[in-house]
Write a structure and sequence with these properties.
This protein has 17 helices and no strands. The protein has one domain. The chain is 85% helix and 0% strand. It has 472 residues and is mainly alpha-helical.
Length: 472
Amino acid sequence: MKLGQISFINFASQIASSVFGFLATIYLARTLGAGVLGTYFLVVALVIWLKVIAFGGVQSALTKRLSEGGDSGAYVTAGMGLFLGVYAVLLVGLFLARDLLAAYIGRPVALPIAVVLFATLLLMFVSGALQGQHRVHISGALEPVDTFSRSTIQIAAVVIGFGLYGLLAGYAIASAVAGLVGAIFVTWKVGLPGRRHLWSLFDYARYSWLGRLSSRTFSSMDTLVLGVFVAPDLIGVYEISWNLASLLAVFSLAIQQTLFPEISSVAADDERDRIVNLLDDAFAYAGLFLIPGLVGSALIGDFVLRIYGPEFGVGHVVLVILVGSRLAYAYGEQFLNALNGLDRPDLSFRINGIFFVTNISLNVVLVSVYGWIGAAVATAVSALVTLVIGYRVLDRFITVSFPYREVGTQMLATVPMAAAVGAGRLVLEPSALAALTLVTLGAAMYFAALFLLSGRFRATVVRNLPTGYGGS
């Protein structure tokens, strides 16, 4: 299967997942309000932080070692043992910190966090194994399974009247279901790990964990800091804005997940020219949706936010800043992805360390002074730091060829889109129908213009059509 097709399948899976989540969140927001959603997002942020801090490096190491080939059974067994051992330690920590967690959240949540954490770890382990076995498209397909299950269960729980704990139960059950489905496609070879297998995982994980932590810092450090300074209602609006920005970034993430095992494989054979070509493709399409998304959010972001309810329209400025930060981070992550694929997690570790300190420092300072606008600005500045430093470091090892012409063409293609959407905003009143109409119109105008302007885009579309339509 072509890399473009794998990326598209992964992207289609993630976009389907995002659409399911988008529709479900609209219902939950309109039913529960921003306050309950804000508390739920805060609990989920804590769960994901615990997961990434404790297990992110192990998952990355498992994917890396499996992608290299050889001793797959031993690495799968070693990875499973590390996951279970660290989880046992976390359970003790959750029990000891249960009162602090209750004071921070406002409700007793230690037990729900433990349950949700276990379910998400199952999915995390299975996804890491599938990606390492070059089955990224299957790993990506677990996203809609997870989100559809979660959305269905959460909506049912809210209808029954379970509220916050119903949302958390839905999160846990859905993760477990997706993990079990994915486990069917993992190649489960039996192998007794030796000391070298454990050390190999640990040696890679000790650097790569900060990369996962930095990614989570980018996604939710602002949420945790907002939990100290801002009311749950505004946290709910902020998270909705972040989810919309993340929806636009799913194609970039799909490219990143698809290319990592490929870069890792060719790096093992020292094929530097092939890595340069892979990166050129990654940069060419990392902003495919984010570039028009930034223009669109500036023009009609408030229209889109009002779909969730009138109270969410106040997040317009935050939404624009967050989409901009996702755009910068999409390019920056491709640099770090390449460094990890080149088996230089130590360099990614240092870059992520700078990002981590920058993000936390800016969040604490700016949120305390400027509130949620400060959180969005802190996220954007941190993303730019990763982009600049990542480029400078990677350029020392391989020639980084950024496709300025293709990215410029994508920017040019937003001009007719902006004209059409801007004109529509002038004549339409804010409503869900108006928002969906303008988003659909803008997307059609953008991709039509890009198809006409970019020969590379046309060739990529044709080349990755199923065999029989675009060739082999």
